Amino acid sequence: MSEHPILDGPGPLAGRTIAVTSHRRAEDLAEALERQGARTVRAATMRIVPVGEDPELVAETERLLAADPPVLLVSTGQGFTTWLDSLEPTLRERTEAWVHRSRIFCRGPKARGAVRGRGFPDAPTAPEETTASLVDVVLDAGIRDTAIGLQRHGYPDDRQLARLEEAGCTVHVVAPYRWRPGPDQDAVRDLIERTIAGEVDAITFTAGPAVEALWRTAREAGRFDALQEALRDGRCAALAVGHVTAQPLQDAGIPVLWPERERMGALVRLAVERLGRPAPEQET
Questions:
Q1: Which of 96, 137, 214, 268 has its Cβ near the most Cβ atoms within 10 Å?
Q2: d(CA 250, CA 37)
Q3: What is the pLDDT of residues 99-140, one digit of tens each?
Q4: How sure is the predictor about 7, in pLDDT bands with cuts at 50, 70 and 90?
Q5: Distance, CA of 189 to chain centre
Q6: Cα distance between residue 118 and residue 174, in whole Å
Q7: pLDDT score recorded for residue 52
Q8: How far, in Å, are 66, 193, 250, 283 from residue 223 at the CA level?
Q9: pLDDT (0 to 100) of residue 24
Q10: Is 22 exposed, middle or buried (0-12, 13-18, 19+ CB in 10 A)?
Q11: What is the pLDDT of residue 186?
Q12: Mean pLDDT of the chain
């Protein structure tokens, strides 16, 4: 686990140790925290496999088209776009033809915008931008006893998939993002031990799969229960970039905070608000 001291004087987070679990843009987040005085540790719990290195996506697409489900659930705009753009032209044309004749439901406004931007019909959108809300919309629309295609985002919410299956639906998943363990698992194991020991004030998460990857490493190390207890009892705070990222933490019964504006800069401001020292009073 790479540890970095403060950069620009004490700052409101001086004396605080904050972990960064992301792989993408990890340096940006760590440096923003350091500018506020924090000591940061880098421990990327997972990484994204580039689409071009993932032949399984093509196989998933072929299986989806063979099943020819009449319903498509789009989880993320970027994922939907990445999926279509990654396919070779003939397979892309077949996939787009299937999308055109499908009944589409979107998890949020970005997914809806991506669907419309590709020339597909406008689609109903989940009001809360969560998988649970998306499934609510689908079931409220009377979708039952049919095959469904799902463009999955990073965190697979098995409880919501089970709701669809209980309604008689068969779900065919395509996952444009494939998640693999982070490049330095020793760093992740060290983070787990330091968190249990009370040496880390907060762990930041910018993607739901980063949480799942942390759980996986903790289970392998025999430290899963101890790690979760440290995150529950106040030894270490869990900070997420947004409500979707927070979901797997909430599912585990762990208190988690996220900013109203779901952006990295807002996450840093939340860390300052929750963990920072109060500003000194001005002399009058």
A1: 214
A2: 29
A3: 999 999 999 899 999 999 999 999 999 998 888 899 999 999
A4: very low
A5: 21
A6: 18
A7: 65
A8: 43, 8, 19, 49
A9: 78
A10: buried
A11: 97
A12: 90
CA distance 110 to 267: 20
Structure tokens given for 237: 């705070």
Length of the chain as a residue count: 284
CA proximity to 215, closest of 151, 155, 132: 155
Residue 230 confidence (pLDDT): 98
> Under 8 Å CB-to-CB from 15, ≥6 apart: which residues?
37, 39, 277
* Domains by residue range for the chain, with CATH: 2-45+182-275 (3.40.50.10090), 51-178 (3.40.50.10090)
Instruction: Give, to the nearest 10 degrees, the angle between helix 55-67 and helix 89-101.
Output: 40
